[in-house]
């Protein structure tokens, strides 16, 4: 609904004074969306679910798979067969990026592109509010534990190309171990030691073993 549509509503459908009150609420919601898209910063006050879905639904309608009178044919045409899947993803189906570049605009998905870029702006604003003022850009992508750790290690390798080892406090979780190997580094496993916390026996990091191993291998490695 917009001003043009509301003005065309016949009086026998709803009294004009009732419609005016309802329209004021819509205008207020539109103003919130407008400010968010213009400033690209986190709102001072959190939005209620209806406003969030109002924005998301509006953006989804900008993607070509949701156009009412168009059915494109090409190598990357979004199609959703299951209605449950469509609802789960609010009608988004195209994804983001183009030709392997996640930050490129997707010509068939203006809504998805706006959503992705806006999300990155909000994450950047959050990081700066947390005190990381020097941060200039942010990119939010869905990654599980192993891939996240691997990307962090790969980034550290760029700043410390001579380093080869990663000290790992042993836990029964394979993702961390795999991420070290995938990053082209050598895992050095350090067994945990029994500790007691609040009367309960637990396993904890062997800090002294870490110190000894750093001295043995060399801090630069």
UniProtKB/TrEMBL annotation:
Q: Does the keyword Hydrolase apply?
A: no
Protein's GO biological process: conversion of seryl-tRNAsec to selenocys-tRNAsec; selenocysteine incorporation
Q: Is the RNA-binding keyword given for this protein?
A: yes
The kind of enzyme this is, by top-level EC class, is transferase
- Cofactors that this protein relies on: pyridoxal 5'-phosphate
Q: Which reaction does it catalyse?
A: O-phospho-L-seryl-tRNA(Sec) + selenophosphate + H2O = L-selenocysteinyl-tRNA(Sec) + 2 phosphate
| Annotated GO MF terms | O-phosphoseryl-tRNA(Sec) selenium transferase activity; tRNA binding
Q: In which pathway does it act?
A: Aminoacyl-tRNA biosynthesis; selenocysteinyl-tRNA(Sec) biosynthesis; selenocysteinyl-tRNA(Sec) from L-seryl-tRNA(Sec) (archaeal/eukaryal route): step 2/2
EC assignment: the record states: 2.9.1.2
A Pfam family (short name) is: SepSecS
Q: Which UniProt keywords apply?
A: Protein biosynthesis, Pyridoxal phosphate, RNA-binding, Selenium, Transferase, tRNA-binding
Q: Which NCBIfam families match?
A: selenium_SpcS (TIGR03531)
Function comment = Converts O-phosphoseryl-tRNA(Sec) to selenocysteinyl-tRNA(Sec) required for selenoprotein biosynthesis.
Tell me the protein family, please: Belongs to the SepSecS family.
- Quaternary state and partners of this protein? Homotetramer formed by a catalytic dimer and a non-catalytic dimer serving as a binding platform that orients tRNASec for catalysis. Each tetramer binds the CCA ends of two tRNAs which point to the active sites of the catalytic dimer.
The protein's name in its UniProt record: O-phosphoseryl-tRNA(Sec) selenium transferase
Its source organism is Culex pipiens (House mosquito)
